[in-house]
Each structure stands twice: as C-alpha cells, then as structure tokens.
Design goal:
The protein is 68% helix and 0% strand. By secondary structure, it is mainly alpha-helical. The N and C termini lie far apart (80 Å).
Length: 120
C-alpha cells in the first residue's frame, strides 16, 4: 500500500512538472457548468451564462497561449499553485495572476517618483 501511494505521489509530481512548462489544460465546459451549478445551489442569480463563461475562458486561454511561455517559470509555478490551492483553476485566473505578477515585477514609469528640483 505504501509503495502504491509513493508511486502515485511520484507520478503526480512528474505530471505537475511537465504541465507547468506549458499552458495547463482545463476542461472549460465542465468548469463553467460547475460555476453555474454552484450559483443555483446557493440560490444566487447566475453570475454569467455557461456560454459566456466558455467564451471568456477560451479568449483567456488563447491570450495565455502567447504570454505563458514567455513568463518566468517562478511566475507560472506560483500562479498555477495558487489557483489549484484556492480551487479556482481557470484560464482567466491564470492570466490575471500572470499579468499582476508581471506588473509587480516591472512597474511602469508612471509609478516612479519624479525628480523634484530643490533649487530656488
């Protein structure tokens, strides 16, 4: 039994490393249907239709496909780990996390303090 558990743990580690190199694969339709079902279960108005959710996730996946490979490995790993830990793994969440991390890493020139002359 212990050997089996160690094998599964090792295999899971190998799969995570391989998946971290490329854009993670997410079942968009299942994700969107689950979100809709959660809203119904909690008797909340549907935040977004399943069709709109699917379209938004596809758009995010397409954009992530161009930006994800260029992102630092540490950013990709952190965003993926955060999303998995929070149970919110979606392309939109990954894209948002990556964009925030890149913004923090390289702040814009507008955010830098300007030099003020002290001469009178």
């Amino acid at each position: 039994m212990k050997t089996w558990l160690l094998s599964v743990a090792y295999l899971g580690t190998q799969m995570t490393v391989a998946a971290a190199d490329g854009v993670p694969r997410i079942d968009i339709e299942r994700l969107c249907r689950a979100r809709s079902a959660d809203d119904r279960l909690m008797e909340l108005p549907e935040a977004q239709s399943v069709a709109d959710c699917i379209q938004e996730e596809k758009n995010s996946r397409d954009k992530l496909g161009t930006t994800w490979p260029a992102a630092a490995g540490s950013i990709r790993a952190r965003c993926r780990a955060d999303a998995v830990a929070l149970g919110t793994l979606s392309y939109l969440d990954l894209l948002s996390c990556q964009q925030l991390a890149e913004d923090i890493k390289a702040p814009s020139s507008a955010a830098k303090p300007s030099k003020i002359s002290t001469k009178r």
